[in-house]
Fold Response regulator receiver protein.
Amino acid sequence: MIRLLIVDDDAMVRTGLRLILGGEHDITIVGEAADGREAEAQVRELSPDVILLDIRMPVQDGLVTTERLRASGRAPAIIVLTTFDADEHVLRALAAGAGGFLLKDTPPAKLIAAIHAVAAGEPMLSPSVTRQLIAAATHAPGPDNGAASDLAQLTDRELEVAVEIGRGSSNAEIATRLFMSVATVKANVTRIFQKSGCTNRVALAMKVRDAGLL
């Protein structure tokens, strides 16, 4: 059973999410909050597994909340929900450790799949904006010795996969280009995240960029 906390300053959005997710037999909505500070208190009290977190809220926004929860060392998996597909704050939230990024118009089935994915430790980005986010993350020039050092632990094959992720390639595209099965690509991605300290593809793309590999 996945324990879910909904955090959004719009009461109608919270109600809509409850209606969408309330009927799922393996998801329990344990609470909701209207801002980041309230969310932190709810996390301490309710110990959710996953948070659906709006990025723009009064009192304390989703970015600060993500950073504070991650810094506490006891953060649940976080999915950022937003109406903005090119918001620089979303990039910062992902870099801070959010496990996913979805637009608020994401179909219910994909939202449910995302909750299950991040609860299992898998990153989940909205397909319609993945390339935009990675492109925005990879414009600034490198290289950075710290990023290069983090990636130096990768095998040659893992480094090839990491560079493809930095270019915005999907697992299926990587499999085709590098003559691998999709399952092997996924296994490589998991190892890359573990070795590099990244929690999602955007954070990894930023690290690949900073290492001067693009």
Summary: The mean pLDDT is 83. The chain has two domains: 2-128, 140-210. The first strand starts at residue 2 and ends at 7.
